[in-house]
Every structure is written in C-alpha cells, then in structure tokens.
Amino acid sequence: MGEHHGNWPERLHIVTGKGGTGKTSVAAALALGLAAGGRRTLLVEVEGRQGIAQLFGLGPLPYAERRIATTAGGGEVRALPVDPEEALLEYLDMFYKLGAAGRALRKVGAIDFATTIAPGLRDVLLTGKVKEATTRSADGRRVYDAVVLDAPPTGRIGRFLNVTAETARLAKMGPIKTQSDGVSSLLRSPMTAVHVVTLLEEMPVQETLDAIEELAGLGIPVGRIVLNGARPPLLAGGKFTKAEIKRGLAAAGLPAAPVTVNQLAAEAQAHLTRRELEESLRLELAERGRPMVELPLLPDGVDRAGLDVLAARLLPG
After folding, report:
1. Domain CATH code at residue 215
2. Cα(first)–Cα(last) distance of the chain, in Å?
3. Which residue in 4, 83, 104, 195 could disulfide with 63, CB within 3.0 to 4.6 Å?
4. Helix (H, G, I), strand (E, B) or coil at 227
C-alpha cells in the first residue's frame, strides 16, 4: 500500500464541527481523498445517525467494516458505524470471555445501565474501537492506511476525546484502564489530528475557536480548520455605484428602471456587508496559526460527484 499523503501525514483523522457545518461530508471526502492511488481507508461514525449511509445513498449499514466506495487507482473506502452496545459486548467478550452470558446481559438492559451510569465508558469503547482499527496489522502491515472518524460535534469533542479523565473515575486498574491509557496516548501522538469544520458564520467560528483552545489544553493535536461552503466573492473591487448597475443592465439589454437599480444596489450592499463579516471571521481563524482549507458551496448538494470535488480540494494533486 502507498505511503501516507504528504499533506495529511497523520493516520487517524478526527473530524468535528458544529452541527450543520457539514462535518460528515468533509469526513467522507477526506476518506475518499486519502484512499486515492490504491490506499485503503476506514470511515467511522459513532453517533448512530447512519449519516455515512445517507451520504452514499445506501440503506442502513451494519456494525461491520464494509466497502462503500472505490477510488481511482484501486483505492477503497470502508465504513464502520460503531454501535456502543455491540462494542461493549465485544469488549466484555474479549476480556471476560462472556459469550452467551454477554448476550443475556443485553436482554436485561445491562448495556444501557452500564453506559448510563458511566457515560465515559461508552466513549472509551467507541474511541477504543477506533484505536484498534487504526493500529491493526495483518501480515506485518497496517490494514488501513488512514482512519477518518466523523466525531461528535465541537460542543462535545473535548469530553469525548479526553477518555482517561472520564475512566479514571471508573477504574483504577484492569482492562478498561489499560484500554483507556492506550487510546489516550494514541490521541496525543503525532499519528492523530483533529480537524475542525466551520462555516464563515459567527456561531460556528466561535465554537471552532473554543474547541481548538480546549483540545490544545488537553494536549490533543489540532490539524486543519476546514472552511466549508465558501462562496466566491461576486464584486471583485468591493465597491459599486448605481451608475455602474444601470450601465450593466443596459449592456445586458435589460430595462434599468430606478426601482430595479435600487433593489440591486441594496442586494449588492448586503453582499458586501456579509463579505466584510466573513473576512473578519476568516482573519480570526487565521490568527490561530492552523493550516486552513476552503471548500466550495456545492450548488447541487452533496452526492458522490460532490464528495469527489471536495476530496480534490482537500488533497490536491
């Protein structure tokens, strides 16, 4: 299998963002881009929303690593929707050899009970599954060149990734402690990067800045800021006059009635005001010193062709 993509050298890419910023689309596009040229990537989701299936136009996906896309050069993307209940049973089985007893536990609702009294346990199981896939080898080589995690949103990302603090309260020793320590060291290593997806709007940008600060405080490496849905500037010079609007209408063979000119002038002014806000937000993000990548607004919505457009922007060349 090929080497890592030079621009995205990490092996575990965690994608977060405020709800509505398109983080699932960005995660999927990144998994496609990283699979180009004969690589194999795993796209993981942990929120039970079946967002990956919807994006690729598939029915609900099982808790299994299943190929959902191929790329140029023989690459492939597999998807894994992690089910916390299944992950807990798998885990109990692995460490405590419960077998049929584990399935009986599910019937009595023990899983819900365990994850309700210890929400941190649920996160350790989810991140533990991601770590296992990231580090898994077969025949002396990694099974996946890269793993992309469509993670919980920015408001929950710090708590989700800071598994050791949560499990320290649960377990002082034993397999859960070992698992959580292993996850914690992977998440704080150069193998991992958390990429934050945002729109150029005040709330998502504020959440992005907060998340970057929180992750830095936890010692978890932040990768890129992804500006999604970026629109090209319409007015190149950033200024206009009503006379210019009149001339433009005339040149296009359209009637230049004063009411039309005034409406267009108001719209152009609103566009410029919005652009000024976007510029100040862009500047605020740039001041964090993280690499930024801009993705275009896809007029036809996100389908496979759209994902390929985003993948090419994320991984040019």
Report:
1. 3.40.50.300
2. 18
3. 83
4. strand
pLDDT tens digits, residue range 171-198?
666 777 777 888 999 999 999 999 999 9
Residue 112 covered by a domain: yes
- Give the pLDDT of residue 171: 64
Residues in the chain: 317
Q: What is the pTM of this model?
A: 0.87
Average pLDDT over residues 252-268: 86
User: What string of H, E and C letters represents the secondary structure of 137-161?
Assistant: EECCEECCCEEEEECCCHHHHHHHH
Q: Which residues pair with 195 in a beta bridge?
A: 15
252 Cα distance to chain centroid: 43
Would residue 156 count as lying in a domain? Answer: yes
Q: What is the pLDDT of residue 216?
A: 96
Helix axes of 119-135 and 175-187: crossing angle, nearest 10 degrees: 60
* Confidence check: pLDDT of 227 > 80: yes
Query: In a 3-state reduction of DSSP, which class is residue 96?
Result: helix
Strand segments (E) across the chain: 12-17, 40-45, 66-71, 75-81, 137-138, 141-142, 146-150, 192-198, 222-230, 292-296
Are the CB atoms for 28 and 307 separated by under 8 Å?
yes
Q: Which of 224, 229, 209 is nearest to 274 (CA)?
A: 229
Q: Is residue 267 part of a domain?
A: no
For residue 182, is it within any domain? yes
Amino acid at 102: G
The CA distance from 16 to 10, in Å, is: 16
Buried b (16+ CB within 10 A) or exposed e, 272-293: beebeebeebbeebeeeebeeb
Alpha helices in 188-257 (DSSP H): 202-218, 242-251
